[in-house]
Design a protein that fits this description.
The protein has about 350 residues and is mainly α. Helix content is about 70%, strand content about 0%. The protein has 10 helices and no strands.
Length: about 350
């Protein structure tokens, strides 16, 4: 059965389980990615005239950053911000997979109705072009819906992960109340525009890549077995894992620069210790475009790809575990009649 063959409720449950499992595994990589993205100074690894012209950053590479964090803050610091992150990821994945499933279900019903009106009966399937477009649109729309539903939690997670020591916030609720008191409710939505601009292509490309690769694997199995497309061939957990790796890497490479801009906007005004590098003062960036221009002017194109190594290292297992657990949980729920 295709990934969207379940009902929206079952998809939400399977998506929540998938998000929880994936987040637990990749939390340390996500924290390091954020530390790199909000570091204004060049990394030591960048070297050259740019690094020599001014101070270099605290973090120089993925493993160096991990060792530094563990040495200075303890191993538990690698999961700092994980509680609000789980509170973000679980509903995010639930909404995303439920919306994706519902959109595809409605599209399939529309396609059958269109064929019925055209005199072709109510059966049949969508064309390959229609399926490709649907994967892209459904992925983008479901990603946008999940983002709108959970964005304040994403901002709180970023603040908690980026603050370092000494702590600026005691916890999630303290961070939320402080931000609302100083900036109003709109402060909880700082960076929303670049997030939506980022998530539309990211979720769209990710689901497009996964659906396309999954369909190719299923079609290959059916050809080898000499069976038609009506056969309920599916993919194994291992196959889902590797398909997720490919989908995660491709989509992350496309949107990483927008993720950097989003993080810079999210930490504007965060009064963290200067031991972690220059602070992003309030008013540094007037908006998404201004942030992009300033980063390019002061840090070069490489500035838009800060944190790309841990980001890619994170994206691959994150997507892999998400899709693998989603497929596994969907089969379990289906077997249970849910």
């Amino acid at each position: 059965a295709p990934i969207a063959a379940h009902g929206a409720s079952a998809a939400a449950l399977a998506g929540a389980a998938a998000g929880m499992a994936a987040r637990t595994v990749v939390a340390p990589l996500d924290l390091m990615k954020i530390r790199f993205q909000v570091q204004l100074e060049p990394t030591k690894a960048a070297g050259g005239a740019r690094a020599a012209a001014g101070p270099v950053g605290k973090y120089a590479g993925t493993w160096q950053a991990m060792r530094t964090i563990v040495r200075e803050e303890g191993a538990r610091a690698l999961w700092r911000g994980n509680v609000p992150a789980q509170m973000l990821v679980v509903p995010y994945c639930a909404v995303q997979f439920a919306a994706n499933t519902e959109i595809k279900k409605r599209a399939a019903e529309w396609a059958r109705e269109r064929r019925r009106r055209e005199g072709g009966g109510g059966g049949g399937d969508m064309s390959a072009t229609e399926k490709t477009a649907l994967s892209l649109v459904a992925g983008s729309a479901s990603g946008a819906a999940a983002t709108l539903a959970t964005y304040p939690l994403d901002l709180l997670r970023t603040r908690l992960a980026a603050q370092g020591e000494p702590k600026v916030y005691k916890g999630m609720f303290h961070a939320a109340s402080t931000i609302v008191r100083k900036k109003g409710v709109s402060g909880l939505y700082a960076g929303l525009v670049p997030t939506l601009v980022q998530i539309l292509p990211y979720a769209g490309v990710q689901f497009l890549a996964y659906d396309g690769l999954r369909s190719a694997v299923v079609a290959s199995k059916e050809r080898r077995r000499g069976e038609g497309p009506e056969t309920s061939a599916t993919v194994s957990s291992l196959e889902s894992f590797f398909l997720g790796v490919a989908a995660g890497v491709v989509s992350k490479c496309v949107v990483h620069p927008l993720d950097v801009i989003k993080k810079r906007l999210q930490v504007q005004g965060l009064n963290r210790s200067i031991a972690y590098g220059a602070r992003v003062a309030c008013g540094t960036y007037s908006g998404t475009r201004d942030a992009m221009v300033q980063v390019l002017r002061t840090e070069g194109v490489a500035g838009l790809y800060k944190g790309i190594a841990p980001s890619l290292i994170k994206a691959a297992p994150n997507a892999a575990i998400t899709f693998m657990v989603y497929e596994w949980a969907s089969r379990r729920l289906s077997a249970a009649g849910i």
